[in-house]
Amino acid sequence: MSVQEYLDKHMLSRKIEDAVNAAVRSKAPDPVLYISNHMRRAVSSAITKIKARQILDSKGIPTVEVDMYTNKGMFRAAAPSGDLDKIYERSELRDGDKGKYLGNSVSKAVRNINEKIAEALIGMDPTLQSQIDHTIMDLDKTESKAELGVNAMLAVSMAACKAGAAEKEVLLCKHIADLSGQSGLILPVPAITVISGGKHAGNNLAAQEIMILPVGANTFEEAMQMGSETYYHLKAIILEKYGSIGCNVGEDGGLAPNITDFREALDLVKEAINRAGCNGRIKMAMDVAATNFCVGNKYDMDFKSPDKSGQVFKTGEEMAEMYAQLCTVIYFVCQTIQFVSIEDPFDRNDWLHTKAFTDLGLCQVVGDHLLSSDPKRLERAIDEASCNGLLLKINQVGTVTDAIEVAKQAKDGNWGVVISHRSGETEDSFIADLAVGLATGQIKAGAPCRGERVAKYNQLLRIEEELGEQAVYAGENWRSPEILAFTSVLFC
Ligand code: PGA
Ligand code: ZN
């Protein structure tokens, strides 16, 4: 091909002239930079390369990371992972070779991405999220997605979403809002873990997390300040009462004093809220994760005690009574600190007690293990009014499109939606943008401590700063942020 033929084929003279004219028209201070950006925008939108690798999550367990390349750059995402025994979740793919990471390495999932998924996605437009996600889903016809691995699918889907946002030159949260048809961006109330127990910590506390919700803050930044200050007052209280050993932290960064009774834990948190001067502006919540200590049809409140003679079994009715007391006693004795949300108060198959407790209407009842972000279990729970909040863990569903659908399903049922981290996290902050874009009003991302937890909170601080005057914090409307969506103006 001659030089002239080449120039003609690519219409180069015309394109360069257009770029120069545009720079002149805008009187760009740096015309060369302006022209290069202008030309870059004209490049076609396509995925050019996908490269996956094995990295470690916050527990030191292998997980999947993906680099997706488009003509706009490289976009990285990593899949989180939770506790094992995920019977109702879609399946992660692990190698099972006991000689490597005790069976947890993910080289098969990595290979699936580098070979099967990459082959299917290269050339696709990264802004077309649902087409990308359907293509990934179609590669594995199994219900559980065990062949491809949900860890492989999710990491690619998240990377594509980031690439799509870059292609459109909008914030990731804005791109997610567009994909979901959401009309406003809302900064969520953080459910900040301050005490860890259950399977996440080595103390005797059966309940997995005690959380604080700074609903009375005016901005997300103020919420984090209130949360962090309360956390450090709590640390000082625990130091006074239990010594420095009580200040060790659990997998999600919550403090883990060796207490057994969760009412004692809630009392410590109440005192910390008071010391922080946040009385009335911070509410309390708990993830009981009761599936982890359900034995038959009873609950073993002492399930971590090495001395099994001290087992304390409670019936579902007794558990419900305890929870009801938390909601009423805390409310009446100390009018201003309310216990407002409880997650998995009963076993994942204990639909009966979960519904009976929800019917009391004392607080938000969130289904985590109960629902496992599974649309069918969610449908049943909405039909039967078993609970009224969805804990949405994106790696339980597999792709960004599926996560958006499940969130919509819960919202259509007039439920609260909590975007959640996993106990095995990475430095990827994707869920921060997801919570803002879906305007869920709630995010659970652990303590204001440990890098993989604060990565999410720090991203929310950045989003709030970026949105400036247009930033809207869910605050008191944490369960029904739609009210705020009308007042929030989309960031363009
Ligand atoms: P997981 O814990 O990620 O270990 O499942 C989080 C939760 O139970 O909410
Ligand atoms: Zn949970």
UniProtKB/TrEMBL annotation:
Its cofactor is Mg(2+). It comes from the Eukaryota. Residues 184-481 form the Enolase C-terminal TIM barrel domain. GO terms for molecular function: magnesium ion binding; phosphopyruvate hydratase activity. Keywords: Glycolysis, Lyase, Magnesium. It holds the Pfam family Enolase_N. InterPro entries: Enolase, Enolase-like_C_sf, Enolase-like_N, Enolase_C, Enolase_CS, Enolase_N. Its EC number is 4.2.1.11. Pathway: Carbohydrate degradation; glycolysis; pyruvate from D-glyceraldehyde 3-phosphate: step 4/5. Residues 47-176 form the Enolase N-terminal domain. GO terms for cellular component: phosphopyruvate hydratase complex. GO terms for biological process: glycolytic process. It is an enzyme of class 4 (lyase). Belongs to the enolase family. This is phosphopyruvate hydratase. It comes from Spirodela intermedia (Intermediate duckweed).
